[in-house]
């Protein structure tokens, strides 16, 4: 696709990046087949190809309206289109640039600003989010249905957490909403790794990876969160106190993998960001790399009498962002669980960070579609790899939803 950048962006790093991406798009439309919003709404402007065209027009200086921005707001940034695109169009990066331009050139209503401002303030603050979640749980029976679905009825206790006793250590991230919504995830990860001979280290004060505010179009605030996290982690990396970073939320992992790109123009942080992006792995990659130790442990335990039937929901951040497929499924099968078939596994569940709150209608429709696909094989449990998907699916599921590491932890219990 041809593009003639307008003066306001020509010659800037963002302009050059956007131009290169737009020029790669050959307008073939293959991506529309896997785009969840196009599948639901059937409007070309709610497809990747349509959105690329809207962004191109905005970058060429054409007038933009709240309607133009709405088509980008409706995009889940699931990146299914990137997986499908035969030309290697990096849609996610282009969407970041387009959104920044549209945000600056359009005005949101007071309600939208308040809603987005509240999310950007509360979500990256674990203590505040935890306190509000506690109040929400007390008030849960009295909340309207839509709001009640966002507040979990039960939060699994974390259980015992082993001390950091091994020479081999990896960093992990507590995250912003995960400590309050699902403290059992990192505790289960710590127990599984401890049995393999690796200690999981959480650095106090290391909170949000930056994705939340970045994707709320507060890109500078998101970058500030990224720098703050790097500052917390760097002393451990600099003195080789850890051998890597293992993320238990694939959403954080996909963002951190992108740090090298996101901070490439910051001379103070680009080298640290590149190092951290290289060290960061999804937890499943680390456990799979330790497969012999994992299998020895499994062999020492009595075989499960009743293997659980598990439907695995592969988050977009795992399959489209990190391009990881099959690893979690393999680990679940090796630990004795039986995977049930899941149709349309490439489609987003509608969680997408704060999307479920900002675009509730589309989000609920996608969740219903995903839950129907997950339920078709009659699983006893749904497993996922990302806290956002877990909380979102839990709000509508009749079947328990857990992180896959909790199922491995169960399989390894004495
Ligand atoms: S599949 Fe790729 S090249 Fe084809 S229209 Fe979509 S983004 Fe453009
Ligand atoms: S990121 Fe997802 S929702 Fe957005 S255009 Fe691509 S496939 Fe569609």
Summarize the structure.
This protein has helices at residues 13-24, 36-41, 48-59, 66-73, 80-84, 91-105, 110-122, 126-139, 145-148, 178-181, 184-196, 211-215, 219-238, 250-257, 259-262, 270-279, 283-289, 291-300, 316-321, 327-334, 355-358, 360-375, 387-394, 404-412; strands spanning 169-172, 199-202, 244-247, 280-282, 309-312, 338-339, 381-384, 401-403. By secondary structure, the chain is an alpha/beta fold.
Topology:
Layout: H1 13-24, H2 36-41, H3 48-59, H4 66-73, H5 80-84, H6 91-105, H7 110-122, H8 126-139, H9 145-148, E1 169-172, H10 178-181, H11 184-196, E2 199-202, H12 211-215, H13 219-238, E3 244-247, H14 250-257, H15 259-262, H16 270-279, E4 280-282, H17 283-289, H18 291-300, E5 309-312, H19 316-321, H20 327-334, E6 338-339, H21 355-358, H22 360-375, E7 381-384, H23 387-394, E8 401-403, H24 404-412
Parallel strand pairs: 1-2, 1-3, 3-4, 5-6, 5-7, 7-8
Helix pairs in contact: 1-3, 1-6, 3-6, 4-6, 11-24
The structure holds iron/sulfur cluster (2 copies).
């Amino acid at each position: 696709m041809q593009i003639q950048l307008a003066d306001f962006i020509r010659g800037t790093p963002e302009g050059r990046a956007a131009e290169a991406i737009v020029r790669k798009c050959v307008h073939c439309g293959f991506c529309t087949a896997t785009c969840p919003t196009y599948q639901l709404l059937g409007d070309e402007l709610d497809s990747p190809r349509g959105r690329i065209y809207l962004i191109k027009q905005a970058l060429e200086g054409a007038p933009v309206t709240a309607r133009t921005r709405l088509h980008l707001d409706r995009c889940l940034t699931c990146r299914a289109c990137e997986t499908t695109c035969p030309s290697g169009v990096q849609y996610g990066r282009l969407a970041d640039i387009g959104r920044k331009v549209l945000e600056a050139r359009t005005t949101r209503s007071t309600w939208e600003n308040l809603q987005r401002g509240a999310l950007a303030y509360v979500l990256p603050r674990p203590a505040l989010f935890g306190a509000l979640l506690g109040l929400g749980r007390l008030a849960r029976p009295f909340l309207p249905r839509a709001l009640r679905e966002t507040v979990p009825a039960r939060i699994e206790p974390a259980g015992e957490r082993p001390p950091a006793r091994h020479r081999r250590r990896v960093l992990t991230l507590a995250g912003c909403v995960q400590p309050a919504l699902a403290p059992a995830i990192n505790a289960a990860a710590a127990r599984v790794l401890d049995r393999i001979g690796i200690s999981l280290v959480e650095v106090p004060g290391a909170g949000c990876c930056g994705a939340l505010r970045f994707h709320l179009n507060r890109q500078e605030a998101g970058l500030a969160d990224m720098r703050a996290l790097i500052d917390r982690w760097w002393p451990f990396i600099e003195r080789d106190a850890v051998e890597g970073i293992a993320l238990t939320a694939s959403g954080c992992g996909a963002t951190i993998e992108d740090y090298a790109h996101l901070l490439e123009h910051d001379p103070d942080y680009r080298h640290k960001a590149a190092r951290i992006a290289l060290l960061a792995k999804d937890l499943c990659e680390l456990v799979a790399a330790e497969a012999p130790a994992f299998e020895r442990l499994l062999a020492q335990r009595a075989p499960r009498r009743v293997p659980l039937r598990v439907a695995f929901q592969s988050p977009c951040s795992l399959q489209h962002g990190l391009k990881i497929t099959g690893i979690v499924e393999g680990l679940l099968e090796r630990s004795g669980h039986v995977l049930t078939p899941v149709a349309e596994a490439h489609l987003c569940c509608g969680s997408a960070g704060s999307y479920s709150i900002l675009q509730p209608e589309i989000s609920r429709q996608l969740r219903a579609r995903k839950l129907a696909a997950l339920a078709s094989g009659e699983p006893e449990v749904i497993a996922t790899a990302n806290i956002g998907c877990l909380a979102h699916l839990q709000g509508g599921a009749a079947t328990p939803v857990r992180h896959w590491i909790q199922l491995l932890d169960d399989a390894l219990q004495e």
